[in-house]
Amino acid sequence: MTMETNTWYEIFIEALYKKYPKKSDLIQALMDLLYIEREAVYRRLRQDVLFTVHEMAKISTARNISLDAIIGIDSGQIPFQMHQMNYISPSEEELKFLWLVVKGVQRINNFHDTEFMDICNKLPRRIVAGYNYLNQFYLFKRLYQYSNNNEVIPFSQVVVSAEKAQLTESYINAIKHVPNSSFIFDRKLFDLLVSDIRYFCSIRMITDEEKNLIKKDLYNLLDYLYEVARIGYYPETKSKVNLYISELNIDSNYSYTFSQEFNSCFIHVFEKYEIYTLNKDMVNKIKMWMQLKKRSSTQISVVDERSRIEYFAKQRQIVDEL
Q: Where in the chain are the domains?
């Protein structure tokens, strides 16, 4: 084995340890992913035996590790990936990944300049996750639109497991500790959401009683967002929040995470999936483009009390009509 090969292989091993700082977690994850015995994993980590090309490709795909970056290849292309997550009935492996996401958010919250930003034409997961019936509606809508199952499942049968509920609570808590968060809402976001709910009521997929539970969540959400916009931070954690309303239509949800340790940007597609990149140049470009969106938006957090009051009063009227 040449020194050059040894170098990039060691970098690959280091990348694995960054994903799983505890060696026992890394060992178990590789056993589950590659279907090999514990000792076989140890031999690969000690470099007594090398991971095969197939194994490295499988690991890099599952754990979002760029082999191009490790080997030092500049392909001239910017890689985007799509993570297909089943949020309704996640597998054990998907639950492990989601817990890693929560731990990752908790870790980067230690940096005072960590920033999240969302540009939205629908409520982002960071906000909707805290409202059970509203969150259930989004899960139901995804299942209705994209499930391969020919049987249509009504709203009442979309059940969130106890473990998923616990994970969601931990995620919300981590999100509210992010030092800096910004949201730009499409001005018609609540109009579109109420229209969707009304449609599913019309085809009897959502009962009147269920509609009223979702409606109650919407009122509670609007009350909470108003308070956040009024004071400029999450009341539970004092972490800064900027809220803007876009004057121009937004065609999808975009987001980025920026910190000293981890940078990423996401484009949300098909309601349920996200394509993302960790490429530093692309993250910086998308961050710049998203910041420029503020030019055509009205800030309603802390400043411009009149616009803030008018906006939330109008959204409550929209929900009243549901």
A: 3-71, 81-320
